[in-house]
Write a structure and sequence with these properties.
single chain, 16 helices, 3-hydroxy-3-methylglutaryl-coenzyme A Reductase, Chain A, domain 2, Alpha-Beta Plaits, 4-stranded antiparallel sheet, binds NADPH dihydro-nicotinamide-adenine-dinucleotide phosphate
Amino acid sequence: MKFYQMTPAQRRDALMQSGDLTPADAAFWADRNVLPEAIADALSENQIGQFALPLGVARDLMVNGQMYQVPMATEEPSVIAAASNGARIAKLNGGVTATAAKHVVVGEVVFDQLADLQAAQLVINARRGEIKSLADAAHPSIVRRGGGLQQVETEIIAHFLKISLIIDVQQAMGANIVNTICEAVAPQLSDWLGSPALVAILSNDDRQLTTATVALNVETLATKTTDGATIARKIAALSDLAQVDGARAVTHNKGIMNGIAAAVLASGNDTRAVSAAVHAYAAHSGHYVGLSTWQLVGDQLVGELSLPMPVGVVGGAISALPAAQAAQRLGSYQDVATLQAVLVALGLVQNLAALRALAGPGIQAGHMALQANALAIQAGAVGDEIQVVAQQLQQQTKDLATAKALLTQLRLQKGE
Ligand code: NDP
């Protein structure tokens, strides 16, 4: 039986048998996964309840020769199916290769009321050593872990002097670490410059890129109705279109983020920080463009995706959320570079699956087949009724009225 045809319990058993899930984690996922109220209350403000999402697994994503089972939390039907489908095609071709750049986060302290910007810039440039000592004293634990302030850069922008602190945050996402250092350094900078700082905070603009590539033999792209060479040519053309048509680029990139956002959320990381960095990078040339490229090279279709990926494997909400820790164990994210590589590889195969569907049967065939479950629930189906109504919807017009009619009919048959 295929993984997607199994019940959730059978899927957990299959993952235990393949050694991807420990019995303890299988029991954890089988549980209702409600957060203890004290943790829920402590994590955000004005807490009154909890909000559950399904957690699924994109199967067998091969990255740098290793197989990953990627946990994803999403409400959108077809995202995990598409990711698994893209991963399957990549695996047939030897998998995805991905490399992460050094993980640093930039903090900025900005001054706006300086009479002589050039003189102020010289002052700061001459005191880089002292700034380093201040930063290290502000966060000694990150220094002990091998990180901390690496570099100080200064730049005059309009009437502002910007002092950028480039900080190695080791295995954390680093926003709090960087903010702590920026706020600790700012008063001393103000003393030297004789003017208060306007702002001292990290920048979510991240230009440390993780790059994933995959080379596909075109015949592995064939669909039931279209040959692989035609699909490959159309995927390359769609990639070109996303470079010149902003409207298309936004949807192209939303598709990439379908998978990444779900896996980032499951890993306990900050989805907003990742989205902000990714979309800023998509516009770094001055035009918003598609983030991935697909090109025909000989008889292969070569895909590449480079993205900033500001995530961590420790810190933030990760240690407070038992589900995030269990997801990190299932994903085998031993370090931040692995997590970054898996996330960008996931974005690439997610994009592949979407473009292949667009180049072949179109996106709605797969989407609406999976949307039937959501329609059945919307119509009021509960328990076993969901599958029955969803199955009957496959042969009918997939809308709410039809789902409601099918449910009424089903209940009449059951004598309810
Ligand atoms: P933390 O403040 O939790 O700092 C990292 C923690 O991880 C520290 O407690 C550190 O321990 C611990 N740690 C353990 N091992 C390591 C290691 N190997 N490397 C690094 N740290 C380690 O989180 P972050 O600074 O990562 O900030 C992330 C959080 O900040 C997220 O929740 C995010 O949502 C939020 N945030 C985001 C903002 C933005 O994006 N604009 C703004 C503000 C907050 P120790 O104490 O010993 O150093």
